[in-house]
Structure to design on (385 residues):
């Protein structure tokens, strides 16, 4: 079996690409980073440091790479069995034309084997969104055939993969935590579902998508924003601050109450899941900087992301949300000159004020009680600095 994976960054090599290669699948990475691409072509293997209670190094073999801008990528799409991505929402749109061209060539060549595409991104139904982008580049006359032969499979992915350690010179070096979770919607595959250890199948994906979004992503981001305010540099340092841990845990319990109401999750099991996430944040082998986690605040304040979506859930089920409100307020105190979204958010905040800015990016009603409470909490946090 052959797989083409877009994105040879840390998540691509350390998570999805590793699982595919470990399953005996021949993996080609597609990326624009020539240094990484050339190293993969030359070595055809790399090492992954897996850290948890202890640190071990695992070798990933049977891999190669190609520059994702090369015309040869289209030919590979026409021949591959599985296409996966770990590139982020912006790049997904960029590669949609290439993927569409590959599908067209596949049909032209008479390749009747099913192709399954899985966008492994921190997005809700990211593959379905990618499908929309791909279909914009397809002629109406072939869309029905594509629907029949190409599976666009949504997934939920969860693994903390921090940036490479300072001073590391190997372009293929990557460190990941022991825990990983890759859950796919089994109802969306075409043909047989590949047997990949570490890829779990479900017919109720949204429950797992929101469990991860409302717990890991919500907790991770609030830890970062509160950590910045407290002067901490890393997620580990932040979550080991008792005051921050209490706030983060309480926010995760608020978002968890939404999941319990919506999906009938077992309360004790979800409480254990929260504790596992908190433990992952404190992993001594992972240097996960709060500034990195806090970046792209505009995306993270959108209606379907990790702060506002659980908040809306608390409103739907009439549940407490004080700590989610605090996390949202802390986002407005996050400043990073190297992050265009942080700069844009602060610029609009300075010009229009918090209420208008939050309403604009979140979709919340500017006159709602929640926005007023966020503004009041912002003033409290600001005064405490």
């Amino acid at each position: 079996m052959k797989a083409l994976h877009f994105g040879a960054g840390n998540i691509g090599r350390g998570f999805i690409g590793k699982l595919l290669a470990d399953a005996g699948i021949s993996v080609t990475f597609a990326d624009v980073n020539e240094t990484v691409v050339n190293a993969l072509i030359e070595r055809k293997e790399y090492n992954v440091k897996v850290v948890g209670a202890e640190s071990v190094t695992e070798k990933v073999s049977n891999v190669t790479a190609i520059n994702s801008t090369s015309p040869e990528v289209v030919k590979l799409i026409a021949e591959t069995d599985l296409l996966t991505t770990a590139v982020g929402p912006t790049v997904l749109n960029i590669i949609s034309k290439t993927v569409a061209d590959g599908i067209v060539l596949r049909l032209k060549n008479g390749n009747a084997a099913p192709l399954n595409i899985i966008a492994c991104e921190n997005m809700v139904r990211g593959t379905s969104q990618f499908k929309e982008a791909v279909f914009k580049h397809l002629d109406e006359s072939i869309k029905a055939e594509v629907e029949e032969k190409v599976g666009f499979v949504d997934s939920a992915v969860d693994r903390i993969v921090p940036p490479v350690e300072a001073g590391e010179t190997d372009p293929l070096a990557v460190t990941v935590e022991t825990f990983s979770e890759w859950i796919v919607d089994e109802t969306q595959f075409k043909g047989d579902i590949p047997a990949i250890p570490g890829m779990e199948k479900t017919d109720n994906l949204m429950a797992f998508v929101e469990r991860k979004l409302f717990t890991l992503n919500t907790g991770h981001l609030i830890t970062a924003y509160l950590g910045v305010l407290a002067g901490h540099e890393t997620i580990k340092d932040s979550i080991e601050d008792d005051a921050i841990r209490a706030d983060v845990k309480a926010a995760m319990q608020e978002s968890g109450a939404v999941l319990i109401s919506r999906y009938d999750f077992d309360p004790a099991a979800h409480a254990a899941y929260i504790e596992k996430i908190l433990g992952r944040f404190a992993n001594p082998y992972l240097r996960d900087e709060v500034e990195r986690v806090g970046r792209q605040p505009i995306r993270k304040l959108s209606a379907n992301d990790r702060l506002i979506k659980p908040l809306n859930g608390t409103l739907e089920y009439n549940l407490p949300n004080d700590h989610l409100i605090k996390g949202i307020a802390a986002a407005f105190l996050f400043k990073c000159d190297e992050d265009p979204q942080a700069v844009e958010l602060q610029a609009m905040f300075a010009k229009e004020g918090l209420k208008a800015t939050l309403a604009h990016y979140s979709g919340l009603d500017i006159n709602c009680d929640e926005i007023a409470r966020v503004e009041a909490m912002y003033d409290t946090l600001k005064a405490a600095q």
Observations:
- The mean pLDDT is 96.
